Amino acid sequence: MRTLQSSTAKVLFALACCAVSLSTSAQKKVDVLLPVRGFCIAAPRPQQLDPFIKFIGEELAPRHVNTLILRVDFNYQFTSHPELRDSIALSKADVKKIVAIAKKHNIRLIPQINLLGHQSWASQTHKLLEKYPQFDETPHVKMPAKYEWPNADGLYCKSYCPLHPDVHKVVFEIVDEICDVFEANAFHAGMDEVFYLGDDKCPRCSGRDKAELFAGEVKTVRDHLQQKNRQLWIWGDRLIDGKTTGLGMWEASMNNTHRAVDLIPKDVMICDWHYERADKTAVYFAMKGFKVVTCPWRTPSVASAQLSDMLNYRQTATTEMKENFQGMVQTVWSDPASFMEEFYGRKKDALGGENTSGNCFKVLYDGIATLNK
After folding, report:
1. In the 3-class helix/strand/coil scheme, how is 290-302 assigned residue by residue?
2. How does pLDDT run across 111-130, given as a tens digit for each residue?
3. For this structure, is 193 an active site residue?
4. Which pTM does this prediction carry?
5. What span is annotated as the signal peptide, if there is one (predicted)?
6. Which of 80, 113, 133, 373 is deepest in the core (most CB within 10 A)?
């Protein structure tokens, strides 16, 4: 009887080892084919924290997501600048719970605070310009009681002035704090959809080359992060010529910032987002010498095409360019609670139909799962 039990135990142990070996082999394969497998979403509010941590463990980890970009902005109880905290914000202990689950599943955490642009939304001014109005690039543009687009002021989102002598002291203190608490070796600065830059009425920026202003801010942020061996990630839209490509003012630049692509350091990671079409601009960034990830949102067919393109780029690129094509990052532009309601089918998107971020995520990662076979 003991011999039988011993033999059974040995068989079970061998099977377990085999399963681990197969799992490790599959992991190595997908790591080679697609180094970055990311997910980008707003950081949860404290009341959303436990369900979000469960989501990381039960949904992200099994899909081999290895990069989690969390849009924190002012959703943290900063000690360096408590005046910039949202009224309800994550504590240090809350963040450490996210850090722990990420470490458990070997997920790289990258916090984001929007720098330069996106300092307001609709009729609301965000914390930085609310508390430091002197940093506003366009103080003459007043926030409307009811926001509409288009508008006479060309107001989409406010920007801070990159040449204000005091802005970086404040900004870098909260950037350092958020990177420290997340134990992060990379930081996402946003920097997308910057429409207000080099304004004619700005006493510092007026008349300056907008490409040089944008590139200068990217380099300033990058250089600061480099002091602690942290990598800068940004969205790529401001580096694409919107007129030549026909991509327009949202997914590309119509205010001449695109020439900054030749002025910024090559170690900046570019997050190349296109949500309605699988445009091939990842090739453009790779040929410029940048590492790039492609970012879908809510259209599953586009995400599938983008995944196919990314895999093809890595397979067919020259040795010199192959590693510039780094992978895929699913973006979600809602809070985690709303996303999970849709993802788990508890709430339907009447307008989106099948084109939702939850469906897009599932289709993208179903496609990635086939790489293990």
Report:
1. CCEEEECCCCHHH
2. 999 999 999 999 999 999 99
3. yes
4. 0.93
5. 1-26
6. 113
